[in-house]
Design brief:
Elements lengths: L1 H6 L4 E3 L3 E8 L2 E5 L4 E5 L2 E8 L1 H10 L9 H6 L3
Antiparallel strand pairs: 1-2, 2-5, 3-4
Length: about 80
């Protein structure tokens, strides 16, 4: 089963789509913004997806032109 392979830490390759990997994330400090306190986030394993080059190329071809950003001040005044 694929989940068993991932849990063992072996990469799962789906040809033409990408690769799923398990990586070890180090412990780090973070900030609780609401309380203003620093907290420690423990080391953990995380699932990572790395898309295949062919998939990235297909997505780049299929994506529409990027939307034009409107300046926030122009939005308030009604000018573009």
């Amino acid at each position: 089963m694929i989940s068993e392979i991932i849990l063992r830490g072996e990469p799962v390759l789906l040809s033409g789509f990408g690769k799923f990997l398990v990586v070890q994330r180090a412990a780090r400090r973070a900030r609780n913004v609401r309380a203003g306190l620093e907290v420690m986030i423990g080391a953990r394993k995380a699932l990572v997806f790395k898309p295949a080059i062919g998939l990235l190329q297909q997505l780049a071809k299929a994506s529409p032109a990027p939307a034009v950003e409107v300046d926030a001040r122009a939005r308030k005044t009604g000018r573009t």
